[in-house]
Amino acid sequence: MRAWSLIMKEFFMGWRITSLILIVSLLGMMMPSAEASASLKRKGILGLMPVDRSGPLLVAQILPGSTAETIGLKVGDSIQTLNNQTVGSFDDLIPLLANLYAGDHIALEVTREKKKLKLSGLMQERQREQSQHANIEYRSVDYANNRLRSILHLPKQSIHSTQDGVPAIYFIQGYTCDSIDYGLIPNVTTRQMIDQFVIAGYAVFRVEKLGVGDSRSSQHCRDVDFNTELTGFVAGLDALKSHHAIDPAKVYLWGHSLGVLYAPAMASQQNVAGIIGYGGVAKPWYDYMVDLFAKQSTKFWGLSQEQAERNTQMIKPMLADWLKSNKDWHTITQSKSFKESTRAELLAVNGDYVLTRHYEFFRSINQQDFQSMWLNIKVPTLMMHGSLDIQAISEDWAFQIARWVNQNSEQKIAKAIVIDGAEHGFMRYKNREALMQASREGRPSAVNPGKHFDKRIGELTINWLKEVTQ
């Protein structure tokens, strides 16, 4: 069996598009920058896949229309330098590309068939999203010296349009620091669902996180806590409601995964028309993490009940130190529970980072009182759960959120729905065995789901919106 930390990483991250990061989103992993200019520059794209990440940088694949193709890079070339900086491996290349934008000069020295060549040209920008049904605006959300890339799909035609504008859905992504700019992966499940909303007459808005994609910031998503990230989402909400084409009284939050937690926190700061959530959590983060080891390890990953119990008891003290205290991280890493847990590879830890985010990020989530936030929600709320959602674990959470919202409401304004065969990344499978086989094989994926894209999630959202607006 694979190391449990690797299983947990896949499990927790759900449907992260790692292969696409390698070939086309190198520059989405930009380093923090305090620079701000009149317009938000578009990141460039080199556009190659290496034979090996750690060895000499041999080109295995080149993306059509990319900088690599434009300057004449060929499959089989060995890259020696970039802008006079030595490149020993693919991993060496990433920081050298981090702050190159469309139009910037790039020069490579390569070896091709034992001959040394110099290639140069201008960085090409990442492909933008396109749509037959929407006019797409790439703008920025500016606040406190931060500039976050925003993407707005405005329907070319909308039956809901009034003199006040069109209604809008604000899609709030999950916990990872991956880009939500899908120009290079138009078939990704999220984008297909966005098209459903646009065709139904709703504008759809998204905003990148700090330091991700085109965004410019002195901080990066991977280093900030929940409240800092929340501030960016709230700034996005303000920008969306201020848009001339949007009806500010008809903005709906649509949270996916961790986005379900951001939704009530955002609604507590600004008025919204309603909240939709899919694949969310309804308990403290410490309890959620315990459930991952105690319950889902047996249900989805084949561990025996006895082994799951041993793992749970081993890691609980470390989880408590990490999530339920203010102990210094160095002190935690010296504890018996931490050493035993990492030795047993129960959790992916890399320095100050757990599951690719700073340890303070998840600690700050555990400090939030989400129950109180939901109890104060006064707008229509729809919670959806997929019966094959590994990450969200229990359908009870969707119903619990609905009960909280309804508790202080004279009318039952919230409801929960279970979608049979739906998994976390908006795909559909016949049963758990089919899902687990697909997970092991990596195909299909959320990037190219084919027939597995689950259109029911979007359809249920649209039908619910019709109900609450009648």
From TrEMBL:
GO molecular function, one term: carboxylic ester hydrolase activity
InterPro entries the UniProt entry points to: AB_hydrolase_Est10, AB_hydrolase_fold, Hydrolase_4, PDZ, PDZ_sf
PROSITE patterns: PDZ (PS50106)
Gene3D superfamilies: 2.30.42.10, alpha/beta hydrolase (3.40.50.1820)
Origin superkingdom: Bacteria
Signal sequence residues: none
SMART domains the UniProt entry points to: PDZ
Cited Pfam families: Hydrolase_4, PDZ_2
Residue ranges constituting the PDZ domain according to the UniProt record: 35-114
Protein name as catalogued: PDZ domain-containing protein
Organism the protein comes from: Aliikangiella marina
